Amino acid sequence: MKIKSTADGSTWFYCPICGRKLFKVIRHTQCRDFPAWCRGCKREILVNIDGQTIFAAASAQAGVS
Ligand SMILES: [Zn+2]
């Protein structure tokens, strides 16, 4: 589960690796190849968001800082 809605109706993107809350997603959020840095597992996660479709993958540079 990569996104989750909280009680107040906002939606958050969670790290697919460690489950840490990373950033908020609103209704029309769009991003392409956004490198989200997770401080929990110290990895970069490439995030693609287009409307309701969210795709995330560990970056090829994962673990390199
Ligand atoms: Zn993580």
UniProtKB/TrEMBL annotation:
Q: Spell out the protein name for this chain.
A: Conjugal transfer protein
Q: Please give the organism.
A: Agathobaculum faecis
- Pfam families named among the record's database cross-references: Cys_rich_KTR
Q: Which domain of life is it from?
A: Bacteria
The record, for InterPro entries, names: Cys_rich_KTR (IPR025957)
